[in-house]
Design goal:
Blueprint lengths: L1 H12 L5 H4 L4 H18 L17 E3 L1 H4 L11 E4 L2 E4 L4 H4 L14 H6 L23 H17 L1 E6 L12
Main location: endoplasmic reticulum
GO molecular function, one term: heme binding
Protein name: Cytochrome b5-like heme binding protein
Length: 177
C-alpha cells in the first residue's frame, strides 16, 4: 500500500495547469479556425455565372454590286468585306491588314481579284468604273492565276463567304454553275 499512497502523493504534488493552457479556445486557435472556415467557404461556394458577350449580328448571304460593296471598308464601325473571283469575304477578323491603315486597305470594300493575282496593292489594280462590268481577268498569265488560286484558298480557309459579287444590273440573274 505504500506504493499506492506514494503515487497519490506525487500526483497531488503536481502543479495544476493555468486556465489558458486548459482551454483550446486560444486567440491563435480561433484565428486558425477562422482561416480554415474561410478557405472551406471559398472552395465550395458556387461560382457566379460567367457574363457572356452579346452574339455578333447575323450575317445573311447576299448579292453585292461594286457600289453596294464599297461601304464595307471598315470605316465608321462597318465590317470589312472584299471580293475575290465573285465571292465576297468578311475579312473583319483581319481588320489590321484589310481595314483602314492596313497594308491591304485598298482592297476593303472592293474587288481585290486582279490586285491579288498580280501581287500589287496599287489603286490602278482596282476596277475604276463601279457601274461597269466585272473584271474578266483577261491578260493574266498562268503564274498570276496560280497566285490568285492560292489567295482564294487562303481566304476560304480563314474567312466567311458572305455573298457574291455581280455587275450592276445582274443582281437578279442566277449564279452560273
Amino acid at each position: 500500500m505504500d506504493y499506492v499512497e506514494n503515487r497519490m502523493a506525487q500526483e497531488a504534488a503536481k502543479p495544476t495547469p493555468s486556465p489558458e493552457v486548459q482551454t483550446i479556445a486560444t486567440p491563435l486557435n480561433l484565428v486558425l479556425l477562422s482561416l480554415f472556415l474561410y478557405i472551406l467557404y471559398r472552395s465550395f461556394r458556387p461560382s457566379p455565372a460567367p457574363k457572356l458577350a452579346p452574339p455578333p449580328p447575323a450575317i445573311v448571304f447576299r448579292t453585292f454590286t461594286p457600289p453596294d460593296l464599297l461601304p464595307f471598308n471598315g470605316m465608321n464601325n462597318q465590317p470589312v468585306y472584299l471580293a475575290v473571283r465573285g465571292k465576297v469575304f468578311d475579312v473583319s477578323a483581319g481588320r489590321n491588314f484589310y481595314g483602314p491603315g492596313g497594308p491591304y486597305e485598298n482592297f476593303a470594300g472592293r474587288d481585290a481579284t486582279r490586285g491579288l493575282a498580280c501581287g500589287s496593292f496599287d489603286e490602278d489594280m482596282l476596277t475604276k468604273d463601279l457601274q461597269g462590268p466585272l473584271d474578266k481577268l483577261e491578260g493574266l498569265g498562268d503564274e498570276e492565276l496560280e497566285a490568285l488560286r492560292g489567295w482564294e484558298e487562303r481566304f476560304e480557309e480563314k474567312y466567311l463567304v458572305v455573298g457574291r459579287l455581280v455587275a450592276v444590273g445582274d443582281e437578279d440573274k442566277e449564279v452560273e454553275k
